[in-house]
Design goal:
248 residues, alpha/beta, Rossmann fold, 3-stranded mixed beta sheet, globular
């Protein structure tokens, strides 16, 4: 018996991704283990470049998903400051400043290996105090009509949003984009958990969908969910916890 109401959608979409997704040999075609790139990603990426928030942003946060690699390349090409996390947030945040990457190396620098070559590791203390991000972009396994993402179940983007919010890098003008294939869109409203970050835009190869009235609460880290979980000893979580314990 399936007790998770989203699991049936996950199973269907992971099956569809065998047809429209692009595999990652590290995971042996197991689309439940990573956020896949997909056919038509170039068209979806082009739709993001048309957003006002993209044009206005000097610095963007883009997750280290396979489906966001083309957009990371566009951010570097456009001279934006690119903020990402390392895979699984295991080594925290990385930042690539404008002008650091030679033109001939932009495609490589947009990959996870290339980011390790050209990006600078950043603590939350080093990131704190900058202007709030206008645009944050993530991938996902599936997205509902009301902007609730559900994927592998790790909640990495929800945690990234919470941490960035805790240090003042999001506000009510920050827009969140989910880039997915049309087959990953679920035309139904689904209930999210308190920590789920509803998105403002669902971008696919064929559509640009504005999510209205999602009522997203201000971002925060849900500290009651951290102890004993996979996120407990991630470097930025440890850093934030030490700040809290020191009363800062």
């Amino acid at each position: 018996m399936i007790t998770d109401p989203t699991q049936a959608y996950r199973d269907r979409i992971w099956s569809v991704l065998e047809r429209v997704g692009r595999p990652d040999s590290r995971f042996h075609w197991d689309f439940s283990s990573f956020i896949a790139d997909f056919e038509g990603n170039d068209r979806a990426t082009a739709r993001i470049l048309e957003l006002d928030a993209w044009r206005a942003a000097d610095r963007v946060f883009i997750t280290p998903d396979n489906s966001t690699e083309l957009l990371r390349r566009e951010a570097l090409r456009a001279g934006k400051t690119l903020l990402v996390t390392t895979y699984g947030i295991r080594r925290g945040f990385l930042e690539v400043a404008p002008g650091v990457v030679p033109d001939a190396e932009i495609s490589y620098a947009a990959t996870l290996d290339g980011l390790d070559r050209y990006a600078t590791p950043r603590t939350l203390a080093e990131l704190r105090g900058g202007a709030p991000l206008r645009l944050l972009v993530t991938g996902g396994s599936a997205i509902s009509r009301n902007g609730i993402r559900f994927g592998k179940g790790h909640g990495f983007f929800d945690l990234e949003w919470g941490m960035l919010s805790e240090i003042g890098l999001t506000d009510d003008r920050s827009e969140v984009v989910d880039i997915v294939h049309d087959e990953q869109y679920v035309d139904e409203d689904l209930a999210g958990e308190a920590h789920d970050v509803a998105v403002d835009w669902i971008i696919t190869p064929e559509r640009r969908i504005r999510v209205e009235g999602h009522g997203r609460d201000p971002g925060q880290v849900f500290w009651d969910l951290i102890p004993g979980g996979e996120h407990e000893f991630l470097p930025p979580i440890v850093e934030l916890r030490q700040e809290r314990e020191a009363g800062r």
